[in-house]
Specification:
- The chain has helices at 2-27, 34-45, 69-74, 77-106, 110-119, 123-135, 140-189, 191-213, 215-220, 251-278, 284-287, 289-308, 317-354, 360-382, 392-406, 410-416, 419-438, 447-455, 473-499, 502-530, 533-544, 550-563.
- The chain is mainly alpha-helical.
- It folds into three domains: 54-293, no CATH class; 341-455; 473-572, no CATH class.
- It starts with a helix and ends in an 11-residue tail after the last helix.
């Protein structure tokens, strides 16, 4: 009888699943309805979130985890824990990037907030706000004041919702991480015995999370200030009715419990996705729609004008203009570029042909000048006094040694280093060699040409800076700022602990884990390339451990900012 009921329940669940899927697919044919669009996107995107795993900070499992990984994977514990960590961190990232935008807007002046409400929320908002200003019965100053007040409320509401979401998720992340850290050793040794208690604890944590953020649905579903507001109820699935006191669960019971956790993760993703969508920052095309519109209008007008004067409309104006532009360009090149260069070349080589012998006095002056330049450079480089009759060859070796070191970072050392002086000395040496050869041979092309050719052997590579994952100096600065953020949040966590604010401390520890995960993701490839990854990874794991002293963690962050090549900005690595 029980098996029949279970089979019927399973069939009903399957029918319900496919009916919901077909209903969502049909609703997709009406993309402009906000509720249909958001529900479809959330249901469609949630199942695929964990397909491509993003590298996350490691779980707080013991060091002998590698030896026991096969046992843990067979019991599906490791996969469940990693998926929970990944889903929470991804949702926190989505919340954080939108929250930072609204925080920056809240710090702007009232005029900037009013400008945002009118011009940076799209054409519909521009029309609505302009109509309110034109049709308002109050004084103009009062209308502007009302607009500023509306902007403050608009921004504050999004800050409140996103801050509540971040607080709840960060707290959940901290509780989850601490729980895994507590039973990590026992979980590796005896996964079958510790798994039931872990699943029960995870079920309790999902219930706490539901009570923390479930009210946001009711509070903001009917709020008119949220554009296209729509939300779904957050109802996490509880553990099946099984004997939770019995430490020896059957495989079927464990599978049902794990499936419940995955269903809860999917509901959490859908719920947060919809709320974040309702309170997200405007897209770039929405913020700068006026500029894009003007550009599109200008491009269209230009295209129409060109079309009217093209051969497609029976006009030869465009062909004539192109031909005239071509003739003018060719004529300008011949008159102002080619002919002057040929004239200079003829005059220059004619002069060299007439002067086949170099003046010895001029050669002596060039040699003395090179000796003085070598002497000054060597004394400054070595920090000691050189005799006046020091060998030019010895001092030239000092110059070349310093030149090889400076050329490794050409942009930096060309401005603030000794690269420019070393190049000038080489040019002077080249000039001396050429003048010496001119006493016996026909004169070669000017020394400046050889100097330019020698410089072309060392092209200056300009690295395009990207975000924290990039390779340039700006990327290093951003990675260092993430370390500073970790350091600040560790100190804030310690302050909450000393004040006895347990909830705030848990939230701050969760944000510490989020910042460490961002640093872990952005620095891993560069640390592997520089050979620092093993040590840096151990430092990141230490910073994430709940039981380590705050003083030790701050020492680790200070060392990271100072010693790791993949984090320290280039100008400081001297």
């Amino acid at each position: 009888m029980a098996e029949t009921e279970s089979t019927e329940t399973s069939n009903v669940a399957i029918v319900s699943l496919y009916s919901n899927y077909l209903r969502n697919r049909l609703r997709a044919f009406y993309p402009f309805h906000p509720s249909n669009l958001l529900r479809f996107l959330s249901n469609l995107a949630a199942p695929f979130r964990s397909i491509h795993h993003r590298q996350c900070i490691p779980l707080p499992l013991p060091s002998n985890f590698r030896d026991s990984s096969m046992i843990i994977k067979e019991s599906r514990v490791h996969g469940v824990l990693e998926d929970i960590l990944e889903h929470v961190l991804l949702n926190l990232h989505s919340i954080e990037k939108n929250l930072q935008f609204w925080q920056s807007k809240s710090e702007k002046s009232d005029a900037s907030k009013a400008y945002f409400m009118v011009f940076e929320r799209g054409p519909s908002a521009f029309i609505n706000e302009t109509a309110k200003l034109l049709c308002g019965n109050a004084a103009q100053g009062s209308l502007v004041q009302n607009l500023c007040q509306t902007a403050s409320v608009y921004i504050h509401e999004r800050l409140t919702v996103l801050s509540s979401l971040r607080y709840a998720l960060a707290t959940f992340l901290a509780q989850f991480y601490v729980e895994v850290d507590k039973i990590g050793e026992e979980l590796v040794k005896d996964p079958q015995h510790k798994l039931p208690s872990l699943l029960v604890r995870l079920n309790e944590m999902f219930s706490i999370l539901e009570s923390s953020i479930g009210h946001l649905h009711a509070a903001h579903q009917t709020d008119s200030s949220v554009d296209g507001s729509y939300s779904i109820p957050l109802l996490f699935k509880k553990l099946p009715e099984i004997n939770q006191e019995d430490s020896q669960w059957t495989d079927c019971e464990i599978r049902d419990a794990i499936n419940s956790i995955y269903q809860n993760l999917q509901k959490l993703d859908s719920y947060i996705s919809v709320l974040v969508t309702n309170h997200r920052k405007p897209r770039k095309i929405t913020q700068y729609w006026i500029g894009y519109t003007c550009g599109a209008i200008g491009l269209s007008a230009c295209s129409i004008w060109l079309l009217r004067h093209s051969s497609l409309m029976g006009s030869s104006d465009l062909d004539n203009w192109v031909q005239k532009a071509k003739d003018s360009t060719v004529g300008f090149y011949k008159d102002h570029v080619e002919q002057p260069i040929l004239s200079i070349k003829d005059d220059l080589f004619e002069t060299f042909k007439k002067q086949s012998i170099m003046d010895p006095a001029e050669l002596e002056l060039t040699s003395d000048k090179l000796h003085r330049m070598l002497l000054a450079f060597s004394e400054r480089a070595k920090g000691q006094k050189f005799p006046e009759n020091a060998s030019d060859q010895e001092m030239l070796e000092i110059v070349m040694s310093r030149y090889e070191k400076e050329i490794r970072h050409p942009i930096q050392n060309l401005i603030g280093g000794e690269l420019a002086e070393a190049l000038l000395i080489q040019i002077q040496k080249l000039k001396l060699d050429i003048e010496t050869a001119m006493l016996e041979l026909a004169p070669p092309p000017p020394p400046l040409l050889f100097s330019l050719l020698s410089l072309n052997k060392y092209p200056i590579m300009v690295t395009q800076d990207k975000k924290a994952e990039g390779r340039g100096r700006i990327a290093r600065i951003q990675r260092r700022l993430v370390v500073i953020e970790v350091e600040k949040r560790i100190m804030q966590y310690q302050n909450f602990v000393e004040q006895g604010s347990e909830k705030d401390a848990q939230c701050m520890f969760g944000l510490v884990l989020y910042s460490l995960n961002s640093l872990y993701y952005s620095v891993k490839k560069h640390a592997e390339d520089s050979g620092e990854w093993h040590c840096l990874r151990e430092d990141l794991i230490d910073l994430a451990r709940p039981g380590l002293q705050t003083g030790y963690k701050l020492t680790v962050t200070s060392r990271m900012k100072r010693d790791y090549d993949c984090i320290v900005p280039m100008l400081r690595r001297r």
